[in-house]
Design goal:
CATH architecture of the largest domain: 2-Layer Sandwich
Number of domains: 3
Shape: globular
Helix content: 25-40%
CATH superfamily of the largest domain: Bira Bifunctional Protein, Domain 2
Strand content: 15-25%
Number of helices: 18
Radius of gyration: 26 Å
Length: 594
């Protein structure tokens, strides 16, 4: 089964189980200050898991593109990826453990679907602790399906518990499904041990508890199911491959890297690592730049991650002998592979290629400058009897010239020196704190659902419309970041916004607040929403039925919520800062005052 077949088969199966197919969300979360990318299939659905009504109903199924960069330095082995696709099915307060588990088992083992031999599967359930009892209910369902007791393992919180999105809120045990890969493994082999023998293929999360502020738990009245199955890993299993890089999602990209660089995949481990890094990083960068809310390389936030991916790919291209720009050629293959599934990526192909080339050329120029600066510093550095380059010097090369620490270390080795990596990491940590490029755990939708954050979310709608009135209809939201302290709103505009324009925007927003406009939503099709004049930010990237929030006669926008009931609840709106975010994108920070 190919990846394209798996996507369709999964959706079709759950449609037979009365699930509504919904579209995946952008890779760049909106109104979420706690994470740079969509990190899991559940991420865009957290507001609905927390109680918001979903326009498509209570049974949902989707394919969601995700990015995780916490293990970015591990990419290059056989399994780690920064970009991946998750298949998910959801119950919002309808079916629960038994029906969820039975559907998973049917899809995995039925000859009509994936036809995985049942004897190759094993499962894990939550072992329980002092706060929450052992999940005997899930285990009993697995037993009823014929899973032998020695293939039902009970593991602790580290393996089989899904915590709340924040400090408090919905949470619960999960049951994970593993497949025997046929690899010999070790004496400690069991599901949950990463020795290659058992690979997790599916995870069913049962949100049945509410964690209170005092750390205790109560049962939820409305229980939800959230599941996830990774496409890359699943097709590797179905095709009997030892690595995801052996599947059709990667082999065309690898072949193109071989063609461009002249390197041969499989010739030696160092070459293979470099090829896999280029393969993964170009694939991820292309999807991020080509997303409907695409991000360009920059020095902060998500743009910093894109820049890091591109520059790491360039560095490994240099290891394969590439002195000139080559990433755009690889990206053409990536776009060609995915554009039928994600049309926006195809529509933004030229932007993807030009951004990659521009960043690659900038980095190559940076490398030349950094190497020149290193040569200037070298005589003094060699006078150090310890032959150690101080961390602060290595960081200055990085911070001032964009010179990667890995290349500083390579040059140091060539001159029989080392780098104080610990000192560099300490300087880098301080830099990260300053730029606030934090990739912490997500909390879904907004930073929280407090009254203050909800008020600021409503204010972004007023701000968006006011900007369009003052600056023109070319203004479109490119992202927002909302905490209890302030809102941050990014929008398209080619020039700095003048003080006079900012004052007028502020006045318009406060005029609408003073009008005490009602805030309400209606559900309609996307076509009806557009005909009604509602702003829809991401083209066709919506489900068939959407929520349209209206703020009196002033603003209409497709949005999932939450919002206040009336603008009079907002207080006084004040813009505190306007600045550039990236090329062609401006940023406004604003607050609400009583």
């Amino acid at each position: 089964m190919t990846a394209n077949e798996l996507r369709r088969t999964y959706i079709d199966f759950f449609k037979t189980k009365a699930h509504a197919e919904i579209s995946g969300a952008s890779l760049i979360p909106q109104n979420d200050p706690t994470v740079l990318f969509t990190t899991a299939g559940m991420h865009p659905l957290v507001p609905y898991l927390l109680g918001e009504k979903h326009p498509a109903g209570t049974r949902l199924v989707d394919v969601q593109r995700c990015i995780r960069t916490i293990d970015i330095d591990e990419v290059g082995d056989f399994s780690h990826l920064t970009f991946f696709e998750m298949l998910g099915n959801w119950s919002l307060g309808e079916y629960f453990k038994e029906e969820s588990i039975r559907m998973s088992w049917e899809f995995l083992t039925s000859p009509d679907w994936l036809a995985i031999p049942p004897e190759k599967l094993a499962v894990t359930c939550f072992a329980g602790d002092d706060d929450v009892p052992r999940d005997e209910e899930s285990a009993a369902v697995w037993k009823s399906l014929g899973v032998p007791a020695d293939r039902i393992l009970f593991l602790g919180r580290e393996d089989n518990w899904w915590g709340p999105a924040g400090e408090t809120g919905p949470c619960g045990p999960d049951t994970e499904i593993y497949v025997d890969t046929g690899i010999a493994g070790t004496s400690a082999s069991r599901p949950g041990v990463s020795d290659g023998k058992w690979m997790e293929i599916w995870n069913n999360v049962f949100m049945e508890y509410n964690r209170r502020a005092d750390g205790t738990y109560s049962m939820l009245g409305r229980k939800c199911v959230d599941t996830g199955m990774g496409i890359e890993r699943t097709i590797a299993i179905l095709q009997g491959k030892k690595s995801v890089y052996e599947t059709e999602l990667f082999t065309p990209i690898i072949a193109d890297i071989e063609r461009v660089t002249g390197a041969s995949y499989g010739s030696d481990e160092a070459t293979d690592i470099s090829i896999r890094i280029i393969c993964d990083h170009v694939r991820t960068a292309a999807h991020v730049i080509g997303d409907e809310a695409g991000v360009s390389p920059s020095n902060v936030g998500a743009g910093y991650i894109v820049r890091r991916l591109i520059r790491r790919a360039v560095r490994h291209g240099r290891k394969l002998g590439m002195a000139d720009p080559f990433l755009a050629s690889i990206a053409k293959t990536v776009v060609g592979m995915y554009e039928s599934v994600y049309p926006t990526l195809g529509a933004k192909k030229e932007e993807v290629l030009s951004e990659l080339t521009a960043e690659e050329e900038r980095f190559l120029a940076t490398l030349r400058k950094g190497e020149h600066e290193f040569e200037k510093l070298l005589p003094n550095l060699q006078r150090n009897p310890a032959r150690v380059i101080p961390g602060r010097v290595a960081f200055r090369l990085y911070d001032t010239y964009g010179f990667p620490i890995e290349i500083t270390e390579e040059l140091a080795r060539e001159h029989e020196m080392t780098v104080d990596r610990e000192g560099f990491e300490e300087a880098f940590r301080k830099h990260q704190e300053t730029s606030k490029a934090d990739t912490g755990a997500f909390k879904g939708g907004l930073a929280d659902h407090t009254d203050t954050t909800t008020r600021l979310h409503t204010a972004t709608h007023l701000l968006h419309k006011a900007l369009r009135e003052v600056l023109g209809d070319h203004v479109a939201q490119k992202g927002s970041n909302i905490t209890q302290e302030r809102l941050r709103f990014d929008f398209t505009h080619p020039d700095k916004v003048t003080p006079e324009e900012l004052r007028r925007v502020e006045e318009i927003v406060n005029e609408q607040i003073d009008r005490d406009l009602p805030v309400a939503f209606t559900e309609m099709t996307l076509e009806e929403a557009r005909k009604s004049g509602a702003i829809a930010l991401f083209g066709d990237k919506y489900d068939e039925v959407v929520k349209v929030y209206s703020i009196g006669d002033f603003s209409r926008e497709v949005c999932g919520g939450p919002h206040v009931g009336s603008t009079s609840e907002l207080g006084s709106f004040r813009i505190v800062k306007e600045q550039s975010s990236s090329q062609g994108v401006r940023r406004i920070k604003a607050v609400l005052e009583s």
